Amino acid sequence: NAGVTQTPKFQVLKTGQSMTLQCAQDMNHEYMSWYRQDPGMGLRLIHYSVGAGITDQGEVPNGYNVSRSTTEDFPLRLLSAAPSQTSVYFCASSYVVGGAYGYTFGSGTRLTVV
Amino acid sequence: AQTVTQSQPEMSVQEAETVTLSCTYDTSESDYYLFWYKQPPSRQMILVIRQEAYKQQNATENRFSVNFQKAAKSFSLKISDSQLGDAAMYFCAYSAGNQFYFGTGTSLTVIP
After folding, report:
1. Distance between CA A6 and CA A111 in Å, rounded?
2. Contacts with A33 from chain B: Cβ below 8 Å
């Protein structure tokens, strides 16, 4: 039972580069989301999905793109990396939309944009 | 807008002692859920305890318990018999509908 798998764990990008953070879950969870964690700001929601083919914006969506073609996968794309996107990124999933039973988190990706 | 406030950026506790972490939230919902998550240095987010707003009884998980005061919109976490492994960042979180909000976290240090 792998839970939520995030790759890569660490990444360094140059300003203007693009990349995709991968997230996969094997729990048949309908709800998946991406958060960024910055010091003193807690976790902020970037995008979320309530099922395959359905995505929506969270609190800080600018500069990020998502798609949900399958229940299992929810990749996060950085279109043109900026230093302000230096952060730790977490993917989370839940069986119930809205996380009434809490979220299962991936192990995070530490991204540095130089 | 719903917000979650953790007013203690840092706390410390002697090993084997008890510590309480504070959390307040703002909501107009009557049906919601509250959580405490632990984030050790490994960065992994671990669910510690969960409380359903319609339940008056405070949730308990081994050495972890909450004091849920619905009218005051307060949700504190008590850690009893603190252990070195309890050292971590602790996040309070609120969920209602498809919204999930986190506080800014409290960094807990356990002193041997």
Report:
1. 12
2. 100
